[in-house]
Specification:
- With about 375 residues, the protein is an alpha/beta fold.
- Helix 1 packs across helix 12 and helix 3 packs antiparallel against helix 9.
C-alpha cells in the first residue's frame, strides 16, 4: 500500500516504522523542519514501573520493540538502565512494599532495596533516602536524536520518504476511490491510506477530519544540565512519582496521600522528580503538569529551584550548571483506560493521538497495534 503519515513525532514515526517493516511504501509529512513537540521535549524514558495492570502487556511489548529498534538503529541510544525510585519516608516505603508484593512485580522487575543496596546499583547516589524501588525493566532512549536516526534507517529501505516543512492542508477522495492529500506547497499526493498523528495540535486539519477529539492538553516544564562528571547508572525518581503514576494506586498510596503533604511547590505544580542521564553526560530533569488552558507562554522559576534541590538532596552533591530549560505540551485521552484515541474520519483516513506522557514509552507498540487493527 501507499501510506501517507502526517506528523513527525514519535507516533507518526512509530507508525512509519511499523508500515515499512510490513512492506508498505510510506510518505511522511512534518510541518516543521524537524519535530519540535513533546516528542523531543521529554526524558526519553521507556517507563514500565508506574503503568497500570491494564497497560502492562502493551508497555512490555513496546519495550521489546524499542530494544529491537535499538539493535536496528543504534543511534536511538536504547539502554536497559533500569530505574530507582528513591524513598524518604516510611509511608513511601509502604507503597513500594505493596507494589513488590503484587503478582505482577516479577514481570515489572521490581525489587525493594535498602539505601546501601541502592548505592551499590547506582554509586552516584550519596544523598538522603531510606530505601529504593528498583525496576529492572525500565529503559531509556535519546529523545532528541532518536527520530532522525529512525528516519535515516527507514530511508535505506527504498520505501520511505520524509518531507519536512510540509503541512497537509486538505484530504479528499479521488473519483476512483483512493485518497488525495494536498500539501501547503500545492503538491497533491494520491495514496491508499492516511494516518494523521497531530500530537498536541488538535485544531486545523485534525479537527477537520475528526471533529473535537476527546483529549486534553497538558503542559510541562523540564531542564537539562551540563555533563555530570560521573555515571548515573539508572534513571531515578523521587517518592512524589508514586502519587503521579497510576500503577502504584492502592491502600498504601491512599495512606500516603492522607498522611503526608507534598512540598507546597510540588503540590501547586503537580510535580514529581524524574532524572535520566543523556549519553553526553548531561541530566534531563523534570517535571510539572498544568492542565488549565490557556497555558502560560513563559516558564516559572520556582519549580526549577525545587527540582534542583531535590536532585541535589538525592545525589548528595551540587548539580552541574543548567544549560537548557523548556516547556512542552502533549495531548492526553480524557478516558483514563484508553492508551490512545483513534478516530476514523474515513475508511482509509485515521487520526491517532492522545497517549499523554506515555507517548515515548508506548509509541512503537501503538504503531504496531494500529497496523494490526487496520490489517496492514
Amino acid at each position: 500500500m501507499r501510506i501517507l503519515i502526517i506528523g513527525g513525532g514519535i507516533l507518526g514515526t512509530a507508525h512509519a516504522d511499523a508500515a515499512v517493516r510490513r512492506g508498505h511504501d510510506v510518505l511522511h509529512l512534518e510541518r516543521e523542519p524537524e519535530a519540535r513537540g513533546a516528542t523531543v521535549r521529554n526524558f526519553g524514558l521507556v517507563w514500565v514501573s508506574g503503568r497500570t495492570r491494564g497497560e502492562l502487556d502493551a508497555t512490555l511489548r513496546s519495550r521489546e520493540l524499542w530494544e529491537d529498534l535499538g539493535a536496528r538503529v543504534p543511534d536511538v541510544g536504547f539502554r536497559a538502565n533500569g530505574s530507582l525510585t528513591l524513598l524518604r519516608t516510611a509511608a513511601e516505603v509502604a507503597v513500594a512494599e505493596e507494589a513488590v508484593a503484587r503478582d505482577d512485580a516479577g514481570r515489572r522487575g521490581f525489587t525493594l532495596l535498602d539505601a546501601d543496596e541502592a548505592r551499590g546499583v547506582n554509586p552516584a547516589l550519596r544523598g538522603k533516602f531510606v530505601a529504593a524501588l528498583h525496576c529492572g525493566t525500565d529503559a531509556a532512549v535519546e529523545s532528541r536524536i532518536a527520530l532522525p536516526a529512525i528516519r535515516q534507517h527507514l530511508a535505506t529501505s527504498g520505501r520511505y520518504r520524509f518531507l519536512p516543512s510540509t503541512e497537509a492542508r486538505d484530504v479528499s477522495r479521488t473519483p476512483h476511490g483512493t485518497v488525495r492529500v494536498r500539501d501547503d506547497h500545492g503538491v497533491v499526493h494520491e495514496v491508499d491510506l492516511v494516518l494523521a498523528c497531530p500530537g498536541a495540535t488538535l485544531g486545523g486539519l485534525a479537527r477537520d477530519l475528526a471533529g473535537d477529539l476527546p483529549l486534553r492538553r497538558v503542559r510541562l516544564q523540564m531542564m537539562q544540565t551540563a555533563p555530570l562528571d560521573e555515571a548515573l547508572t539508572t534513571s531515578i525518581a523521587d517518592g512524589d512519582s508514586l502519587r503521579y503514576y497510576p500503577g502504584f494506586a492502592g491502600t498504601a498510596l491512599d495512606d500516603l496521600t492522607a498522611a503526608e503533604q507534598q512540598r507546597p511547590v510540588a503540590e501547586q505544580h503537580r510535580m514529581q522528580l524524574l532524572c535520566v542521564q543523556r549519553l553526553h553526560g548531561g541530566l534531563t530533569i523534570g517535571d510539572t503538569h498544568a492542565y488549565d488552558e490557556p497555558f502560560d507562554f513563559d516558564v516559572d522559576e520556582e519549580p526549577y529551584d525545587h527540582l534542583t534541590a531535590v536532585t541535589e538532596e538525592l545525589l548528595g552533591r551540587r548539580l552541574p550548571p543548567v544549560v537548557r530549560r523548556w516547556a512542552g505540551v502533549y495531548s492526553q485521552c480524557t478516558d483514563p483506560t484508553a492508551l490512545v484515541h483513534r478516530a476514523k474520519a474515513d475508511e482509509d483516513v485515521w487520526v491517532v493521538a492522545g497517549p499523554g506522557g506515555r507517548g515515548m514509552t508506548l509509541g512503537p507498540y501503538l504503531g504496531e497495534e494500529t497496523a494490526d487493527l487496520l490489517g496492514l
